[in-house]
Design a protein that fits this description.
Strand content: 15-25%
Largest sheet: 8 strands, mixed
Helix content: 25-40%
CATH topology: Carbamate kinase
Shape: globular
Strand order of the largest sheet: 5-10-2-1-13-15-16-14
Order of helices and strands: HEHEHEEHEEEEEHEEEHEEHHEHE
Number of domains: 1
Structural class: alpha/beta
CATH architecture: 3-Layer(aba) Sandwich
CATH superfamily: Acetylglutamate kinase-like
């Protein structure tokens, strides 16, 4: 008799006929083979980070990938948690073109929440799922070098977004060594420049930079919508880079989706083999995206 993993209340696997369960496993086989030894960068954010059931599902997904020979790297955000602490401290928060305006006080909160709490919590959940994980900030070992991000309007006028950083260099050697000894890196997107100035880096941008540096097979961005939606709120399963300007002009792409698509293009242009924006509110969305024919969310491709 096989031993069974204790999943906890309301987490028992759905019962299905034996042949259906076998078919599900066989569907995953070619994808497991294709991703064997590959590096997959997962940007973890949104509701999946605050819902306990989704937290557990994501940890199990990432651990399972590691156990079947995939090398996941997690880059996490923390917008809701940062918003919560800023509100408690009576600090106003504003966004410019999808980026959080970051002054020194806001940056202190960002560093406290991302590096001091969230990263460690994610690593702990991965450990409970049976994997080895290590929480790092972009400042550790000069993991994420950055410069101050410049954001221009269509008129050419530069927008002030404060201490928001643009990744310029990733310490891929450090990540490669961790991967080689079986550790899953969990990265908080706070970077540093050559003068020691810290920056709040958009997690999507950080994930893209890591994907390029590691020559990742796949970049997956988790969000709180099914993917990119058209004017009738229907999922667009695949978007080509040439379609993005028109979609933005028509208002279909706006707000926080802008940096996500920009990050996907950065990764693809830098050599990452594939990118997708998926719904982190769907349990096991990462496994559905990587190990099934249908996938999940919106695939972004060059063309």
């Amino acid at each position: 008799m096989n031993d069974h993993i204790e999943l906890g209340d309301n987490d028992a696997p759905v019962q299905a006929p034996d042949q259906l369960r076998a078919a599900i496993l066989m569907e995953a086989l070619p994808y497991i083979r294709a991703y064997q030894g590959a590096r997959v960068v997962i940007k973890y954010g949104g509701r999946a980070m605050i819902d306990p059931k989704l937290q557990k599902a994501l940890a199990l997904d990432v651990a399972l990938l590691k156990f079947v020979g995939v090398n996941p790297v997690v880059v996490h955000g923390g917008g809701p948690q940062i918003d919560e602490l800023l509100k408690k401290l009576n600090i106003n928060s504003q966004f410019v073109e999808g980026y959080r305006f970051t002054d020194e006080l806001t940056l202190d909160v960002v560093r406290m929440v991302l590096g001091g709490r969230i990263g460690k919590d994610i690593a702990a959940r991965l450990s409970l799922a049976g994997a080895q994980a290590l929480a790092l900030t972009g400042q550790d070992g000069s993991l994420l070098k950055a410069t101050r991000k410049k954001l221009a309007q269509t008129s050419g006028v530069e927008l002030d977004i404060g201490l928001v950083g643009e990744p310029t260099e990733v310490n891929a050697e450090l990540l490669t060594r961790l991967i080689a000894i079986g550790v899953i890196p969990v990265i908080s997107p706070v970077g540093v420049d050559d003068r020691g100035q810290s920056y709040n880096i958009n997690a999507d941008s950080a994930a893209a930079a890591v994907a390029v540096a590691l020559k990742a097979s796949r970049l997956i961005l988790l969000t709180d919508v099914p993917g990119v939606l058209d004017e009738s709120q229907t999922l667009i399963p695949r978007i080509l880079s040439s379609q993005i300007p028109l979609l933005r002009q028509n208002g279909i792409i706006s707000g926080g989706m802008l940096p996500k698509l920009s990050s996907c293009l950065t990764a693809l242009n830098g050599g990452c083999q594939g990118a997708a924006i998926i719904d982190g509110r769907t349990p096991h969305a990462v496994l559905l995206e990587l190990l099934t024919a249908r996938g999940s969310g919106t695939e972004v491709a060059l063309g």
